[in-house]
Amino acid sequence: MARVVVTNRIPTEAVDLLRTEHDVWTWDGDEPMDRATALQRIEGADAILTLLTDTVDDAFLAAAGPQLKVVANVAVGYNNVDVEACERRGIVATNTPGVLTDTTADTAFGLVLMVTRRFGEAERLVRSGRPWAWGMEFMLGTGLQGKTIGIVGPGAIGIATARRARAFGMDVVYSGRSPMEPAAETELGARRVCFDELLATADVVSLHCPLVLHGPDATHHLVDAAALAKMKPTAYLVNSARGPVVDEAALVAALEAGTIAGAGLDVFEEEPTIHPGLLDREDVVLLPHLGSATVETRTAMSVLAAQNALAVLAGRAPENPVTRD
Ligand code: DGY
After folding, report:
1. Which CATH class is domain 3-98+295-322?
2. Which pLDDT score is estimated for 46?
3. Which residue from 164, 156, 189, 191 is spatially nearest to 175, judged by alpha carbons?
4. CATH number of 101-286: 3.40.50.720, 3.20.20.70, 3.40.50.300, 3.30.70.20?
5. Which residue is catalytic, options 208, 242, 275, 298?
6. Ligand 1 atom closest to residue 240's alpha carbon, by position in its atom list
7. Which residues line ligand 1 (CB under 6 A)?
8. C-beta neighbour count of 227 within 10 angstroms
9. Residue 242 is among the residues annotated as catalytic for this protein
10. How large is the average pLDDT for residues 201-213?
11. N or C: which end of the chain has fewer CB within 10 A?
12. What is the mean pLDDT of residues 156-178?
């Protein structure tokens, strides 16, 4: 029997699956485990299931010990995992793609609707008790039909978001390191453009790229002051990818200056801290990183992570290994 550590509460289906073969310890506190406790608890683990709130760096791997074989991250994004350090130590790292595609695309398109139709602002108005009355010009939003969505990162979640946009009558342009899967490109009538053209053309810019900190494909602050300046003053920015893809200070300045019309954000640079300049703005919708937050999806993600860990512990190749490339 191997020792498996789960650093956070995850659905019991996944823990039960791990327990069919191994000795499993899971954190059961109401608050996430602090770093010092985590470093103690992972000592001696052969497999660790982590969440995106765990920083899996060299110190974390060293604290676990040389017997550690696999870190199974319960997320599709793995910017919290130092993959190079895992590779150097011969540890397999895995993620959970596929099972959260539709749920995350629902969140992205929910943000599109909320920000363009001012639903967040409207809900706040009703709850505030301030007077309101139906009127021809009362709280008018922006229609989506015939407008263009710009998908940055045409992977599975980007494609699923584009599908939703098509259903609302939008045209699709996209930019990314690789072209969209040809069948999806044809189905969506999507046009690949460079990032600058996307910024200049799209009425909604929706981010679906991974957070890459360094190198030629780096996406840290991809949307900075210069990028925001290229967007239309009537356009909206939606981020359901990772917070640091957007320079939040530059975004606040752009909203303040009317450079763009609004933003819908599910992710933030310093979660759970929110840039104070965003909090009071009516042209911004803020969600607390709910991208994959349904019972069904969180269960599927956790079970997939457990299966990945079990595979490695059994000496098999996991379904979802991640590598530096
Ligand atoms: C992911 O899996 O990367 C999502 O952000 C989790 O909600």
Report:
1. alpha beta
2. 98
3. 191
4. 3.40.50.720
5. 242
6. 5
7. 52, 75-77, 100, 291-292
8. 22
9. yes
10. 98
11. C
12. 98
